[in-house]
Design goal:
The chain is an alpha/beta fold. Helices cover 24% and strands 37% of the residues. It has one domain: D-tyrosyl-tRNA(Tyr) deacylase (D-tyrosyl-trna(Tyr) Deacylase, Chain: A, 3-Layer(bba) Sandwich), CATH 3.50.80.
């Protein structure tokens, strides 16, 4: 499981000209899933994200987590995070999990993140053509791969 976490001042997701998700201060989380991902990966990643100290304290030093900052989150599925660009110029997405595997893991991750945050998480729509807008705050962008825990 791979996540790109962006600290945002605001973010939104639009599908077919309809805004389906919108937050102010918080995180936009792009999530890529592979067949090998497990429930343990979900728990580890969610815990890592909610405790990631990327929000400013009173001295504007990144000492606070999203929990401390009472921030919101949007999770967007993004299979292209697992693109392989080793050969040629057209990325291969063969590592990305098929929807039958990915959707249950995506939904389980959202549930885990909601439990860990203690509030609802907004989302895009799995497999949809989404327009994602964000104002990256910092900019702060962190990439986490559950296959690189050590």
């Amino acid at each position: 499981m791979k996540a790109v976490i962006q600290r945002v001042s605001n973010a939104s997701v639009t599908i077919d000209a309809n805004e389906v998700a919108s937050i102010e201060s918080g995180m936009l989380i792009l999530l890529g899933i592979v067949d090998e991902d497990t429930p343990e990966d979900i728990k580890w990643l969610s815990n890592k994200i909610v405790n990631l100290r990327i929000f400013g304290d009173t001295d504007n030093v990144m000492n606070h987590s999203i929990l401390d900052a009472n921030g919101d989150a949007i999770v967007v599925s993004q299979f292209t995070l697992h693109a392989s660009t080793k050969k040629g110029n057209r990325p291969s997405y063969i590592k990305a999990a098929k929807p039958t595997v990915a959707i249950p893991l995506y939904e389980a991750f959202i549930n885990q993140l909601e439990n860990d945050l203690g509030k609802p998480v907004q989302t895009g729509e799995f497999g949809a053509d989404m327009k994602v807008e964000l104002l990256n705050d910092g900019p702060v962008t962190i990439i986490i791969d559950t296959k690189n825990k050590i």
